[in-house]
C-alpha cells in the first residue's frame, strides 16, 4: 500500500513534467512497466565488464581506430545522456530524488538503441517538499528530505556513487581511458540542463545545484555524508571553461570542454565537436557562423 501511494504521487509529478518541461527530460525515463515491444535489460547485467568489452570491440569507433580508449569514451559520452540530464532536471525542478543506482534501474532499448532508464522501485525515491511543483499529500508515506543537502545525498549516492563511478572505473580498467575524459563526458551531458530549466525551476535552485555539481572542488557528488567536513573531491569540478566572443550575430560566450572526448582520433575525418578544447577560437567562430547560416 505504501509503495502504491508513493508511486502514484511520483507519477503525478512526472505527468506534470510532461506538460511543463521539454519532452527530452521525460522520454528518457520510465516509471511504469515498459511496453512489451521494448527490450529491457537490468543495468547490473548490461554493465558487466565482459558485456561492455564486447560492445566496445563491436563498435564502429573501435573498427576504425583499434583503440579501446576511443571506443570507451564515445560509448560513455552517448550513454551519459541517458541517466544524467533527466535525473538532475527532476532534482532541480521538482525536488525529486530518483535512485539511479545500478541495482534499481534497467535499460530500455527500442530497435537496438538505448532510449530510457526504467526505475524499478519508486519507493526508493526521496522528495524535497520545498521544490515540489504540486502539494504533497498529508498522508504521503514516502521518504522526504529535510534539507537540500539530504536531497543531494539521495540523488548523488544513486547517480554518481552507485552508477557513474563504477561504470567509469570499469571502463578505465578495461581500456585505460582517462577517468577525467569520462567525467568530462558526464559534465558534457549535464551542464546545459540548467539553462533549459531557466524559467521553470527556481533560480536559487538552479544556481545552487550548478555550483555544487560543477564549481565546488569538494562537494557531495561522491560523498555519502551531508557534513561539510566529510565532503570529497568533486570529479565534475573544473572540466568546462567559458570562451568569450565579440562577433556580431553570435552568442557572447559558450561553454567549452577541457577534455577531448577522443572523437578527434578517428580517421579519416579526425573531426572535432563544437565545444572541443582542441578547436581554435577562430575555427569555432567559423563553425558557429556556418551553422547559423544553415539554420536560415
UniProtKB/TrEMBL annotation:
Superkingdom classification of source: Bacteria
Domain Ferric siderophore reductase C-terminal: 257-278
Domain Aerobactin siderophore biosynthesis IucA/IucC-like C-terminal: from-to ranges: 73-219
A molecular function (GO) term: 2 iron, 2 sulfur cluster binding
Record-linked InterPro entries: FhuF_C (IPR024726), IucA/IucC-like_C (IPR022770)
UniProt cross-references to Pfam families, sorted A to Z: FhuF (PF06276), FhuF_C (PF11575)
Protein's UniProt name: Ferric siderophore reductase C-terminal domain-containing protein
